[in-house]
């Protein structure tokens, strides 16, 4: 199940507010402050730390089946998408990645597969990253802008089946062009990082 995407962005507060305004909640904020990583989770709000020199590594917002993360970057840069899979699916996908000559960085918490399309694929086996009992927030489909053709074919080989939740268009940069999210509160809008977000009721 597609559940996740991640951006690096200079627009952290704006991105957080955008998704919070559309029904997501802030589950964590982790940033480097005075030389060490610390949490700035709710109930803290931006007024509590906005003027501190914090380098945010990750801010996570959740809604049902959806989990979106972002961290500080000097410019907007799409980093990866994530799929929630079983342990058996994980191992088979990693085997298929080797057949494709795609590198897999495997750890106990999550696995990242390096694609030739300038973004990564996260495999997550821990179901606590989403609320499986709540179907709202589900990423029904995303459209990724890439520079070369072949993504859908390669994803079919990687997952051993057609991945209907991801499609591609050709463009000059790599980013998420569109996301269809179940239960998103706004019908048609654009997030601070240029993602066109549509509601799927």
Automatic annotation (TrEMBL):
It comes from the Bacteria. InterPro entries: Glyas_Bleomycin-R_OHBP_Dase (IPR029068). This is VOC domain-containing protein. It comes from Bacillus xiapuensis.
């Amino acid at each position: 199940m597609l559940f996740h995407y991640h951006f690096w962005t200079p627009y952290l507060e704006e991105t957080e507010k955008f998704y919070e305004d559309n029904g997501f909640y802030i589950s964590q904020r982790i940033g480097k402050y005075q030389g060490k990583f610390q949490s700035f989770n709710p109930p803290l709000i931006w007024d509590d730390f906005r003027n501190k020199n914090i380098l945010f590594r990750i801010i996570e917002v959740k809604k049902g089946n959806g989990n979106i993360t972002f961290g500080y970057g000097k410019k907007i840069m799409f980093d990866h998408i994530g799929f929630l899979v079983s342990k058996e699916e994980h191992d088979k996908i990693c085997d298929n990645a080797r057949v494709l000559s795609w590198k897999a960085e495997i750890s106990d918490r999550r696995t990242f597969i390096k694609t030739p399309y300038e973004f990564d694929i996260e495999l997550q086996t821990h179901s606590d990253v989403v609320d499986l009992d709540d179907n709202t927030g589900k990423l029904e489909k995303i459209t990724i802008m890439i520079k070369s053709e072949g993504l859908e074919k390669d994803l079919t080989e990687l997952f051993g089946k057609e991945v209907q939740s991801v499609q591609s268009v050709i463009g000059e940069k790599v980013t998420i062009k569109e996301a269809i999210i179940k239960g998103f509160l706004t019908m048609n809008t654009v997030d601070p990082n240029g993602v066109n977000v549509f509601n799927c009721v």
